[in-house]
Design brief:
Bound molecules: flavin mononucleotide
Low-confidence stretches: none
Structural class: alpha+beta
CATH class: Alpha Beta
Mean pLDDT: 97
Helix content: 40-55%
CATH architecture: 3-Layer(aba) Sandwich
Number of domains: 1
Number of helices: 7
Distance between the termini: 36 Å
Strand content: 5-15%
Shape: globular
Strand order of the largest sheet: 1-2-4-3
Radius of gyration: 19 Å
């Protein structure tokens, strides 16, 4: 599927058929996700694929019973390590020269050290990039998705054993739609959102 067609066809889908997502397609989506951009190539994202049906039911309860959580073939929780900038950063430039690595390491450290808000913002930005790649790659393969933040973060953190220094960005459901999305709720026209040079 052409990229613009995928962008236009992707919608937040709340109801799904029983059709599974093949392992090959799941892998292909995830491999595409890993090519998303991140600042300093930090790749903060961590993904939890929910395969335990009991856990899935508990997660659904923590998300106020939203139907897509139990109906979708797959549920992925997009998380991030806010401390990834300090966790063996050499691996983010493993294929570059020693010179590049020597330059990047101190830059990275001074950029993030002691800046907790920035560390969290950066992790969330990375997750947003990953999530959009996930949803568009899924659409290109004929699947549907729904990004979700309608859940109790503390309960979910507990259920997935979220490590210290990590955050939950969103859920994404993945499967084949059984009902189309509602008509688009209302897009703000471009001139109200696009400015030239300054606000
Ligand atoms: C970060 C994020 C969180 C969302 N959380 C939920 C959610 O918890 N439940 C839900 O039904 N839809 C959720 N949505 C879907 C939005 O309502 C939907 O994307 C928006 O209305 C635009 O519709 P579209 O995605 O079909 O174009 C979420 C979307 C985003 C990006």
């Amino acid at each position: 599927m052409d990229l613009f067609t995928a962008i236009e066809a992707r919608r937040a889908i709340k109801h799904y058929t029983d059709e599974p997502v093949s392992e090959a397609d799941f892998e292909r989506i995830m491999q595409a996700v890993l090519l998303s951009p991140t600042s300093y190539n930090i790749q903060h994202w961590r993904f939890i694929r929910i395969t335990d049906s009991l856990l899935r039911s508990k997660l659904q309860r923590a998300a106020w019973g939203q139907a897509q959580i139990s109906e979708a073939a797959e549920l992925v929780i997009v998380c991030a390590d806010t401390q990834a900038w300090s966790n063996k950063p050499q691996r983010y430039w493993a294929n570059t020269s020693a010179e590049v690595q020597a330059m990047m390491l101190p830059m990275l450290e001074s950029f993030y050290q002691g800046k907790e808000q920035l560390q969290r913002d950066e992790a969330m930005r990375s997750c947003g990039m990953a999530a959009q790649t996930f949803m568009l790659a899924a659409k290109a393969l004929g699947y549907d998705t729904c990004p979700m933040i309608g859940f109790d973060t503390d309960q979910v953190a507990d259920m997935i054993h979220l490590p210290a220094g990590h955050v939950i960005s969103m859920f994404i459901t993945l499967g084949v739609a059984s009902r189309p999305a509602n008509p688009r709720a209302g897009q703000i026209p471009l001139p109200a959102l696009l400015f030239e040079n300054h606000f």
